[in-house]
């Protein structure tokens, strides 16, 4: 009977892709992998839907050990809005699908399921594993540093019988084990809500749920986050000893490989354009699959790029309205209306603007790229490190403000674009920070640090004692125990 691990990925590209890399690692070790899918959000997220379809299609050429199962749609699913109530809808959606997941597991051959691995935001499914009597593991598509912050604050809330209102603390630093001081204002928006409100309480409850797992898989590697991972193994990590931390396995970096993204005509064009540029001369600007700026901010970026005189490749999404960031479906930006008059003509030859999306992994690993302006999403951070590219940190949403702190203060792989804190980055700063990274000695120091981490990332999955390979082996031993 084939030993099987069931994977239950999160409902976003940034959570789905690394878990599929985990699937590949399991297949390499001889496991069968069943991927259980919720498709309720795919109609609202075109890129997520395309990513899932592409992976399912590719599995047709894979041995039958990899299978996908879409859970039956529930009646009248809860809405998952993109405002501050996002996670409430998300958690309720996952909770409502527990019955479908339970029926799937019951339909599988008795004794075949060795473990259920669930995305950390889908941890309501841990209850399904308990009912089935199979081990449950959570998978974090975040940094170990973010995990350390969230779990310590959850535990402290119970020790102190309630936490202060983080929003009122503003930029006061939070001093926690394993991480540099974090301004309270940099926490995720759910933690800046009223501590007695349902949004804050739902987030805290979710963090506690992760502690019920048999173990926690984190998409990171020891050389990058040694301090945070050390803290997660410290017996004094959770204050008050009221909670027990399950084993932590650092199994990253699990990111999309070169050539793994769909190529479209414009994407081929951007790579062809890069072939013509000098080595390390191009700054790449991309803010994730769901992040976008206001029209005024887009124009300001354009002015800064033009003034810098440096070569650039810029992914532009349709603008948000009235806020710095919006989450939603793809739309086609009108570049002529968005960009300053004559900008495309004046920068023709040393700059290229593409709409909506570019094959980021292939772009970052191109020899022409010298810097990366990023929203600090964890996948993007690791992709840049694996390409040896220093970063300009411009966080937008989720835990990205925290990642910015880790990237600048702990990892030493980027510089902060500070204007984001006032909600608007001026052209002067865009120009100055690009010049700093591409031309200054500080930029050279950043480049050297990232290149060292690039080598460490490559070694993490090395069969001869790589840290992530070893951690993955320990996970498999625990699963089969």
From TrEMBL:
EC category: transferase
Xref: SUPFAM superfamilies: UDP-Glycosyltransferase/glycogen phosphorylase
Enzyme Commission numbers on file: 2.4.1.-
Keyword annotations of the record: Glycosyltransferase, Transferase
Keyword Membrane among record annotations: no
Annotated Gene3D superfamilies: Glycogen Phosphorylase B (3.40.50.2000)
InterPro entries in alphabetical order: UDP-glycosyltransf_plant, UDP_glucos_trans, UDP_glycos_trans_CS
Organism domain of life: Eukaryota
Keyword Cell cycle in annotation: no
Molecular function per GO: UDP-glucosyltransferase activity
Record family assignment: Belongs to the UDP-glycosyltransferase family.
Name of the featured protein: Glycosyltransferase
Naturally occurring in which organism (per UniProt): Digitaria exilis
């Amino acid at each position: 009977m084939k030993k099987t691990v069931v994977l239950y990925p999160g409902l976003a590209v940034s959570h789905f892709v690394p878990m599929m890399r985990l699937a590949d690692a399991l297949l390499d070790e001889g496991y069968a992998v069943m991927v259980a899918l919720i498709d309720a959000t795919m109609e609202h997220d075109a890129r997520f839907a395309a990513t899932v379809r592409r992976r399912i299609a590719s599995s047709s050429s894979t041995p039958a050990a990899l299978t996908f199962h879409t859970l039956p749609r529930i009646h009248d699913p809860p809405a998952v809005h993109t405002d501050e109530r996002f996670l409430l809808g998300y958690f309720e959606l996952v909770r409502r699908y527990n019955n479908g997941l339970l029926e799937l597991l019951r339909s599988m051959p008795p004794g075949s399921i060795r473990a259920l691995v669930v995305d950390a935001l889908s941890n309501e499914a841990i209850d399904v594993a308990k009912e089935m009597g199979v081990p449950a593991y959570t998978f974090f598509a975040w940094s170990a540093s973010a995990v350390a912050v969230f779990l310590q604050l959850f535990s402290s809330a119970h020790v102190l019988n309630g936490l202060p209102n983080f929003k009122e603390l503003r930029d006061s630093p939070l001093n926690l084990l394993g991480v540099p001081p974090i301004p309270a204002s940099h926490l995720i928006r759910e933690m800046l809500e009223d501590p007695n409100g349902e949004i804050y309480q739902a987030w805290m409850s979710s963090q506690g749920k992760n502690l019920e797992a048999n173990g926690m898989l984190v998409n990171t590697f020891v050389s990058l986050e040694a301090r945070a991972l050390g803290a997660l193994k410290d017996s004094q990590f959770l204050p008050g000893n009221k909670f027990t931390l399950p084993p932590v396995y650092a199994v990253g970096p699990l990111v999309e490989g070169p050539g793994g993204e769909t190529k479209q005509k414009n994407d081929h064009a951007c790579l062809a354009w890069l072939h013509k540029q000098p080595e390390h001369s191009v700054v790449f600007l991309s803010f994730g699959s769901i992040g976008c700026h206001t029209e005024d901010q887009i124009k300001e970026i354009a002015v800064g790029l033009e003034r810098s005189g440096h070569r650039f490749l810029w992914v532009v999404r349709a603008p948000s309205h009235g806020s710095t960031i919006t989450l939603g479906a793809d739309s086609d930006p009108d570049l002529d209306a968005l960009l300053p008059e004559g900008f495309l003509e004046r920068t023709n030859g040393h700059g290229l603007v593409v709409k909506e999306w570019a094959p980021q992994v292939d772009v970052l690993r191109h020899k022409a790229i010298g810097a990366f302006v990023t929203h600090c999403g964890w996948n993007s951070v690791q992709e840049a490190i694996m390409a040896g590219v220093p970063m300009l940190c411009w966080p937008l949403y989720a835990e990205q403000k925290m990642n910015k702190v880790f990237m600048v203060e702990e990892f030493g792989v980027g510089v902060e674009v500070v204007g984001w804190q006032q909600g608007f980055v001026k052209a002067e700063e865009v120009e100055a920070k690009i010049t700093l990274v591409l031309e200054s000695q500080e930029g050279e120091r950043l480049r050297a640090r990232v290149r060292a981490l690039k080598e460490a990332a490559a070694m993490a999955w090395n069969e001869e004692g790589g840290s992530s390979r070893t951690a993955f082996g320990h996970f498999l031993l625990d699963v089969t125990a």
